[in-house]
């Protein structure tokens, strides 16, 4: 199960990287278009869709690598059961928020599809298509938070410390 979950997080991160490359292509195409006097409709919209997709799809991978911003001022002062209790509470609250985000993201995709909602730009993209990345990213983030909560509950959670945080002190 661990390998499957890690593959899910890594796969979402790889897909986020693909969207980042797509974002680069859209920006370069827009710049070239201005310099060479041609216009490709929708490049700005598609760059925005790709930026959002990259951000949402990278959330779970970032969480699992310990790269999310955490406020550890209070947590660093606690030890033992009180520290573990605060960790469990924070992970439970984050899991609840991730579940709400995943639910409402999926609901937005469903409603956009149902209402045939399209972009107001000249690309006229059905909005449920770019919204899928947000829904998928929040769902994978929910899975990652449940994973972290279960690991903490069982006492098997390792606290990843990014290298940059160590160098900043």
What radius of gyration results from the CA coordinates?
A: 20 Å
Helix content: over 70%
Structural class: mainly alpha
The first-to-last residue Cα distance is 36 Å
Count structural domains: 1
Q: pLDDT below 50 for ≥5 consecutive residues: which ranges?
A: none
- What about the largest sheet? none
User: Mean pLDDT across all residues, rounded?
Assistant: 90
| Number of H/I helices | 6
Shape: elongated
**How much beta, percentage-wise?**
under 5%
The secondary-structure element order is HHHHHH
Number of strands: 0
A few lines on this structure:
This protein has 169 residues and is mostly helical.
Write the layout of secondary structure elements.
Layout: H1 2-36, H2 43-57, H3 59-64, H4 80-114, H5 128-154, H6 163-167
Helix pairs in contact: 1-2, 1-5, 2-5, 4-5
Question: Would you kindly provide a written description of the structure presented here, covering whatever features stand out?
Answer:
This protein has one domain. Helix content is 73%, strand content 0%. The protein has 6 helices and no strands. It is elongated, with a radius of gyration of 20 Å.
Give structural attributes:
mainly alpha, 169 residues, elongated, 0% strand, 6 helices
